[in-house]
Amino acid sequence: DFPPPAADRVADAIAYLQTAGTARTRRVKTLGNAINARSRNKLEQSEIERVIAELLRRGVIAVTDGKVAYP
Predict the structure, then answer these.
(1) 11: confidence class by pLDDT, cuts 50, 70, 90
(2) In the 8-state DSSP scheme, what is residue 62?
(3) How confident is the model over 49-60, as a mean pLDDT?
(4) How many CA atoms lie within 13 A of 24 on its CB side?
(5) How far apart are CA 17 and CA 34, in angstroms?
(6) How far apart are CA 69 and CA 26, in angstroms?
(7) b/e for 36-63, b at 16 or more Cβ within 10 A?
(8) What sign does the CA torsion over 18, 33, 35, 26 have?
(9) Mutual orientation of helices 7-20 and 28-38 as an angle, nearest 10°?
(10) Distance of alpha carbon 54 from alpha carbon 43, whole angstroms
């Protein structure tokens, strides 16, 4: 699998999702874009994928057919 992402990026992504309310992203690609934007567009695609994988592992998000759900 992927090496673990920087803990602060995961924490930032979780904070974003908690404050976004009904404006949370609904697709994996959009979520990746939002994570990257919060890091001033400095993340490599592999790092974005690691953050998303960690969100999945922690149960913060669920993904089905490219769509994001928030359990």
Answers:
(1) very high
(2) E
(3) 95
(4) 19
(5) 10
(6) 7
(7) beebeeebeeebbbbbbbbbeeeebbee
(8) positive
(9) 110
(10) 15
